[in-house]
Backbone:
């Protein structure tokens, strides 16, 4: 008995240890993994162009070389233009010193805010300055006895001698080393990325086959779907992001040109590439032309226009363009993207900032197709992790009636009332009954859940169904019938309060479909109630029952009704009952001479199929 907690603790430590080891490997092997990841990213970007050239019957090697030359040429040309304009701006900055000093003087001009800041600063100095202390009294010391007298240090007549250190002038080789040294690291990384990208494009099928063989042929179908999904998501995301950023940079350059900011092409190109950096890229891209506008223009009109330009473009792009163009292609939530940026930047630095979104997309896809890593898809994905009925029931368990009502109303905006009852409320009732029979729900919470559902059903019944329309103008609820049917529907409760709520829901749905319906609470002996109703030959009875004991309660109630009314059409609603138990449902139909349905929509269909007795 003492081993079970130890075994459970050990099994819980395995994933944590694996995570720590993975983070350590990613950190200490970053010198190798960063070029490999960048090469993989470039391969995803260039692979569609290579495949397009191959479809034109160009050999693979020639297609790869052409694409690589075009990509490197484009980057080199942009780099040359950007560097040239940047150097020109740096050389021209001394000419704008007077303008900068004038703006700084205007900012430091005396005013209420400046005086307040000065007063606060003076007060802080007074509070932090300690009072002057009395100088310590010098205590005479006895002269040290020494065999040798101290030798006085000779001083110059004008005071201490000044020492000046003169560094030797670097030669041509040292100047070249100082200039090239800082560039060796990025050039080395760029060379490794180019080589990796080249071989990935050449041997992409071989690499894919080796990966499939490594995982195993038993997982061939799942692995193939995962690879295709990851490649499609990452490639489409990168392509869409490149197009969006290109449009963003073009509009930035055009706006800066109209404002009158110098080197507008430079800032447009920098906005294009910096926007690949999540969250911080746009800030840096807008700060640079803002500083230049402050330095090169008189007044505050141009800086304010630059600030407004970047704010408007980013708000429109981030809130409208991106969700519409590629918001659904990443499959990541906003919080997951932010957490990924922090994680990969902390491990890999600026390269991790660039690679954070593509790498997180791959992890999310891996969690989607691997049962052992499913938690990755739950943590990172943007799809709802709770079904609507589970979300509705969870808010009721949290004693939050208002939010549960909002869940129902939001679902009802795009779906019919019958779908709401079938897919949300009946499922929540079934979960509540499961917890109640398992002894996991205290009486106070049980009473709140049932009462809230009853109130929500009543409130939804009083709403106007024709007022809810879709965005396309299509009425989503059931159309009104041309004329009301002669059939009356008597809705009986199989056992408890949950069955009674279900009976009221089927009565509402029947009324909206044109059938006069009455719902009754649970009675031990329905024979007396049936005699008081005086049913006609064209009427029918519907029994409502909710799992887990739906079958037992419905069978007992059906037998009593069948004994009192042997000829009346009988419909048994085993709401949310698993449809896989088809044999059980058929046996119930045969023993009770009835029709068994598992949804309200099927029950209404059965009502309409019942022949009308003249």
Residues:
């Amino acid at each position: 008995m003492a081993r079970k907690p130890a075994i459970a603790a050990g099994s819980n430590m395995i994933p944590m240890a694996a995570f720590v080891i993975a983070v350590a490997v990613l950190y200490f092997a970053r010198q190798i993994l960063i070029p490999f990841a960048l090469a993989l990213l470039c391969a995803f970007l260039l692979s569609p162009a290579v495949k397009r050239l191959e479809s034109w019957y160009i050999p693979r090697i020639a297609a790869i070389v052409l694409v690589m030359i075009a990509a490197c040429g484009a980057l080199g040309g942009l780099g040359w233009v950007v560097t040239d304009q940047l150097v020109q701006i740096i050389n021209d900055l001394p000419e704008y010193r007077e303008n900068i000093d004038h703006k700084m003087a205007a900012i430091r001009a005396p005013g209420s805010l400046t005086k307040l800041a000065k007063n606060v600063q003076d007060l802080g100095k007074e509070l932090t300055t300690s009072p002057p202390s009395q100088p310590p009294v010098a205590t005479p010391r006895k002269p040290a006895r020494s065999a040798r007298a101290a030798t006085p240090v000779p001083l110059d007549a004008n005071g201490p001698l000044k020492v000046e250190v003169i560094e030797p002038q670097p030669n041509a080789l040292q100047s070249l080393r100082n200039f090239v040294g800082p560039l060796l690291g990025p050039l080395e990384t760029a060379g490794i990325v180019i080589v990796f990208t080249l071989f990935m494009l050449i041997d992409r099928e071989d690499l894919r086959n080796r990966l499939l063989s490594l995982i195993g042929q038993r997982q061939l179908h799942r692995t193939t779907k995962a690879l295709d999904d990851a490649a499609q998501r990452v490639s489409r995301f990168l392509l869409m992001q490149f197009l969006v950023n290109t449009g963003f940079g073009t509009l930035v350059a055009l706006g800066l040109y109209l404002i009158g900011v110098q080197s507008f092409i430079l800032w447009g190109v920098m906005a294009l590439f910096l926007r690949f950096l999540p969250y911080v890229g746009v800030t840096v891209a807008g700060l640079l032309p803002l500083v230049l506008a402050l330095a090169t223009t008189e007044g505050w009109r141009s800086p304010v226009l630059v600030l407004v330009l970047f704010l408007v473009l980013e708000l429109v792009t981030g809130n409208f363009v991106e969700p519409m163009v590629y918001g659904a292609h990443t499959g990541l939530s906003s919080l997951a993207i932010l957490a990924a940026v922090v994680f990969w930047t902390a491990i890999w630095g600026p390269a991790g900032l660039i690679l954070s979104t593509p790498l997180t997309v791959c992890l999310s896809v891996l969690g989607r197709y691997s049962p052992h890593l499913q938690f990755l898809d739950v943590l990172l994905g943007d799809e709802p992790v709770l079904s609507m009925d589970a979300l509705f029931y969870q808010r009721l368990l949290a004693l939050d009636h208002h939010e549960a009502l909002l869940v129902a109303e939001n679902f009802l905006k795009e779906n019919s009332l019958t779908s709401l009852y079938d897919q949300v409320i009946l499922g929540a009732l079934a979960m509540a009954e499961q917890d109640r029979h398992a002894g996991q729900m205290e009486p106070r919470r049980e009473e709140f859940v049932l009462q809230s559902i009853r109130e929500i059903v009543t409130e939804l019944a009083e709403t106007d169904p024709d007022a809810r329309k879709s965005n396309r103008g299509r009425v989503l609820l059931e159309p009104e019938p041309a004329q009301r049917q002669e059939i009356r529907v008597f809705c009986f409760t199989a056992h408890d309060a949950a069955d009674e709520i279900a009976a009221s829901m089927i009565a509402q749905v029947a009324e909206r479909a044109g059938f006069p319906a009455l719902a009754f609470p649970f009675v031990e002996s329905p024979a007396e109630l049936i005699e008081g109703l005086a049913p006609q030959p064209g009427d029918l009875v519907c029994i409502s029952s909710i799992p887990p004991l739906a079958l037992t309660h419905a069978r007992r109630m059906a037998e009593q009704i069948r004994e009192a009314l042997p000829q009346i059409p009988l419909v048994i609603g085993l709401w949310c009952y698993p449809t896989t138990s088809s044999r059980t449902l058929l046996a119930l139909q045969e023993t009770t001479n009835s029709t068994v349905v598992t949804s309200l929509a099927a029950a209404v269909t059965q009502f309409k199929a019942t022949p009308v007795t003249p």
Notes: The chain has 24 helices and five strands. Confidence is low (pLDDT under 50) at residues 1-10, 144-150, 466-485. The longest strand covers residues 540-545.
